[in-house]
Structure formats: C-alpha cells, structure tokens
Amino acid sequence: MGQASPVPVGETPALSTGRRWFFPSALLHELDPDAARAGRRPRRTARDWAVDFSCFLLAVVVGVTAVEALADNPHVPDGLAVADQVTGALACAAVWLRRRWPLGLAVALTPLGIFSDTSGGAGLIALFTLAVHRPFRYVAWVGGVNVALVPLFYWVRPEADVPYPVAVLFAGLLTVAAVGWGMFVRAKRQLMVSLQDRARRAETEARLRAEQAQRLAREAIAREMHDVLAHRLTLLSVHAGALEFRPDAPPAETARAAGVIRESAHEALQDLREIIGVLRAGEPDDTGRPQPTLAALDTLVAESREAGMKVSLDHRVEDPAAVPSSVGRTAYRIAQEGLTNARKHAPGTDVTVTVTGTPGTGLTVRVHNPPPEGEVPPVPGSGQGLIGLTERATLAGGRLEHGPTPQGGFEVRAWLPWG
C-alpha cells in the first residue's frame, strides 16, 4: 500500500509524540520541513488507517445498497447488473489507493459512474480525496465533469421509482457536497500549517532577538572593559616604569608610586571580576553598579594628577547634574580615554580637558595635548579605544573627531546632544 519511511516530527512544537496518531499523515508531512525538503512520502498514521477503512466500508455499504436497487430496476438487464457489481467491487478496492493517486483515481472513476451504480460511493470518496489533496483547478475540472455527467447517467439508467429531475438534483447535490467538504478539510489543514509555520517563525525570531541582545550586551561589556581597565592598567604601567627607571627615587615618591600601583591593581582586579561574572552569567550587568557621570570628571582628573600627569580641567558646565546620565557617561568615557591615550603616547606633556555646553546647544568635550618631548615607543593595540569612542558618540546621537593638530599635538573633540 505504498508505505514510506517514518516522518520525523520532532521539530513540530505543537504536536507531541503522544498526539501524532490523531493527525493526518499529509498534515504531519507538511508540518515537517525536513521531510518536505527530502521529498519522502508520509507514513500512514493510526488515524489514516481508521479513516481509510471507514471510507472503504462506506463505499461497500453504498455499493450493497445499489445492488439491491439494481435487482428492483427493470431497466437493467441481468448481464449488465453483474458487470455493474464487478466494477463496483473493483472501485471499492481502489479506495485504498486514494492517498497515493487522488487525481488518477478520481479521473478513472468518473466514466465508470455512468455505467455502474455500485461504484457511486467510491466515486464520491475519490472526489472528496481529490478536493483534500490537490489544488482547486483539478477539483474544478473533475468535479465539473462529474456534475455534468449526472443527467446523462440517469438518462441512461433511470430510477424505477424516483422522478428524473429529483434523482438528478439529489445526485448533483451529493457531488457538490463531497467536493465542498473536501475543500473545507483542505482549507483547515492549510490554516493549521500556516499557524504552525507562523509559530516556528516567531520562535526563531525570538531566539534571534535574544541572541542579538546578548551580543549587544557583550559588546557593551567589552567597551566598558576597555575603558575601565585601560585607564587602570595605564596608571599601573606608568608608575611601575617610574620605579624601574628611577631606583634612586626618594622613599616618599617610591611609596606614593607603590600605593598607586597597589590601588590601581586592586581596582582593575575588582572590575575584571565583575565583568567576568557578567560574562559567565550570560546576562547584562543589571546589578545596579553606579556608572560614572559628568560630575565624576573632577575625580578622574584628580586621580590622573595623583598618578603624575599634568592635567588642567576647564569645566564650563554650570550644573553637571542636569546633564542626562547617558550623555554624561559618554562624556566621562571620552575624557577618560583621552587622558589614557595622552599618558601612553605623550607622557610628561600638559593635557587640557575642556567641557562646555548648555541645554539645546549640546555638550562639547575636548582633550588636547602638545607633542611629546623625545621619542615615544609605539604602544600595541593603539587606535582601538578611539574606534570605541566614535561608536559610543554615534550611539548617543553625537559625533567624535580625533587627529593630530597643526602644532604637532593630538586632539579628541566630541559633540553630544543635550536638550
């Protein structure tokens, strides 16, 4: 009977293993994308066997009823009645092939319906199956031919006790009802397939959105790691270098440098633990850890001065607390990265940090340093921080420019919206 390999339905979220017997094999085949792509024929489920047996039994019952009507019909000779019964038996047996060849079976039973009363039930079942499994264009042609042949059938084989118009009308209505029921079943299956496909797409989109959110969170963590750790480790490197190249430094200066190294290393390790903890959890940092704002710029400059930098701060914003937190945090990170770069690439120079702005005009942050004296060894990984700063400023709705000045120094200048 043309059974094929089992159809895997493990990827169909709405159909559990215990409920698959209840659904048609054709529907399970359409809901399983792997089987559809592979072109495998669906295996009949327990429901399919029950439905096929019911259709066969219905065709047999209709055929037996027609045999009794043939015996009472004087217009049908005995030889034709025997041929009618043999044809009807073959048509009933062919009902088992309706799933494999729905169009061929319906076309084959259409002309038999003109000469065989006992194949009428099988013909209606074939029309129903055709309407379920094939597009409307096939159903319209075959169903239309069947309806058109109904008057011819009752003209060739008139009923003994039923008027001709009544018999034609009743048979025509039965044919239309079988086709309409089959189209309804097909539409219902297509609706279920559409809903299942929509559910799969929604799950896929939700998973992609979650992955994208996680990726964006990790990128934000990476930027935060660079901004924080680069500043701490630069302080550590500067003071460690001073201790290395000045072993004869006064004890007070040595103790101060060692204190800065110890404090910077401790803070860097603490930041690193928090960031690694967030990465292990796979979630954004929502623990409420305070983020720097524009009001913390004085502390940043003081920390840089304690590390031995020459920094002058020109803070012209009257009320730093009025600056939006996201804008203030971005301005702080820009100043922090500018000071870190100046410490690495222009050690010993006078660095100027200028912050100006008012609501409506925006916030401007400028970090400038003159050219360093003497040769400065290249620092690995240079330029990555400026790329991150440009991205930060763009995400905040502003812009950032950086590059050498005509006098040979370097300047980072950013504008952020405020208003």
- Quaternary structure of the protein: single chain
Binned, the helix content reads: 55-70%
Tally of helical segments: 12
For the biggest sheet, the summary is: 5 strands, mixed
Main β-sheet, spatial strand arrangement: 1-2-3-5-4
State the separation between the terminal residues, measured CA to CA.
Answer: 76 Å
Write down the domain tally: 2
Beta strand count: 5
Question: What can you see in these coordinates?
Answer:
Helices cover 62% and strands 9% of the residues. With 419 residues, it is α+β, with helices and mostly antiparallel strands. Strand 4 and strand 5 form a beta hairpin. It is rod-shaped and about 130 Å long. It starts with 24 loop residues before the first helix and ends with a strand.
What is the topology?
Layout: H1 25-31, H2 33-38, H3 46-71, H4 78-94, H5 102-115, H6 120-133, H7 136-156, H8 164-245, H9 251-281, H10 297-306, E1 310-315, H11 325-345, E2 350-358, E3 362-369, H12 384-395, E4 399-404, E5 410-416
Parallel strand pairs: 1-2
Antiparallel strand pairs: 2-3, 3-5, 4-5
What's the short story on this structure?
The chain is an alpha+beta fold and 419 residues long. It contains twelve helices and five strands.
State the main characteristics.
62% helix; 419 residues; five-stranded mixed beta sheet; 5 strands
